[in-house]
Amino acid sequence: MKKKNEIKKFTKHLTEVIKSKRQKISILKLNSMKKKNEPVAWVTAYDLPFAYVAERAGADMILVGDSGGMVQLGYETTNPVTMDEMIILASSARRGAPNTFLIGDMPQGSYEPSERDAVINALRFIKEAGCDAVKCEGGKRVTKQIRAMVDGGILVMGHLGLTPQSTPSFGGYRVQGKTIKSYDQTFQDALELQKAGVFAILLEAMPSESAGQIAKQLDIPVYGIGAGGMVDGQLVINHDLMGFYQPFRPWFAKCYVPEVAQEFADYIASLDDHRKIGREHRRDGLLVLAEMAVIKYIEDVKNKTFPRDDYSYPIKDEELERIKKSEFWLE
To answer: How many CA within 13 A on the CB side of residue 287?
Structure first.
């Protein structure tokens, strides 16, 4: 009975998605969700099939991250990714998800040199790829560029904490916000970004307590990727969620395939004619499995069951007590 109910639930969800014309989330809605404590669930996508899956599963937003340089193009880091490559990835994702809020990730070198470079390259995401917004890394050092983009009518998301484009300055991939110095710097950068006009901030690789303080005190939405469950929403790399990236998987990343593998097997077993379903609806393969995995992830975010402590970075009690003495800590 349970198996039939799960299959029925999944089929009903997809039917509702297909019948309804999805409307993109708005900035007003994102702000409202923060006020109502309703978590935003979003994922990355770099091509048509994964973006298609994200939209059908009901993701609130999609990020075409420069992480695509690693998981899709095979670079060892995000640094070699070019604007032309990002436009190709973003354009493909847009075609797969025409009705989902799409964010293009500004690659290294596309915005740092000057305000003019920042505006020109951000507009490429909007005009050539059909993105709704852009994201860029850095705090106070890039506020001039952010203001220029915002003044140009472009929606900009900030990115703080562990910023992959700047990992050499951190001494590698290191968790941020675990010391009072790191926390204070991140908090001040967050305030500067808010002042510069970003519509939201993404915090990466921070203890839940530190990230939660920033989300609590800022007026704009603050989301997390590996920043615990006290922020306003969660982002995951789709290749981590699906177990598609072999070189490594971050501590905070959960693969959802084991969660839905039996459900997928039961669904396949329930089909009377696999060839007919595949030929007429393409509902007999990995797209179905991927949709099930993303749906489960979204449900867990919305229900606030992901991430819990086992997918969050820990912080020692003595370290936390030192951070609580910061002038930027609010009890």
So the answer is: 16
Under DSSP, the state recorded for 81 is -
Structure tokens at 307: 């991430």
Q: What is the pLDDT of residues 96-152, one digit of tens each?
A: 999 999 999 999 999 999 999 999 999 999 999 999 999 999 999 999 999 999 999
- Angle among Cα 25, 26, 30 to the nearest 5 degrees reads 85
pLDDT of residue 171: 47
Q: Residue 3: which pLDDT band, with cuts at 50, 70 and 90? A: low
Distance from first CA to last CA of the chain, Å, rounded?
48
The answer to whether residues 56 and 291 touch, using CB atoms and an 8 Å cutoff, is: yes
Contacting residues for 19 by C-beta, under 8 A, at least 6 apart: none
Distances (CA, A) of 59 to 45, 217, 331: 11, 26, 33
**CA–CA distances in Å: residue 163 to residues 27, 47, 196:** 24, 23, 19
Please give the Cα distance from 212 to 20 (Å, whole number). Answer: 35
pLDDT tens per residue, range 307-316: 999 999 999 9
- How would you class 176 by CB atoms within 10 Å of its CB: exposed for 0-12, middle for 13-18, buried for 19 or more? buried
CA distance 7 to 13: 10
Q: Which residues contact 219 (CB under 8 A, 6 or more apart)?
A: 194
What tokens were used for 175?
């968790």
Distance CA 229, CA 219 (A): 18
Q: Residue 20 — pLDDT band, cuts 50, 70, 90?
A: low
Query: Which residues, listed in sequence order, are joined to residue 137 by a DSSP beta bridge?
Result: 159
Q: Which of 131, 96, 61 is nearest to 298 (CA)?
A: 61
Q: Report the catalytic residues.
A: 204
Tokens of 272: 């009377």
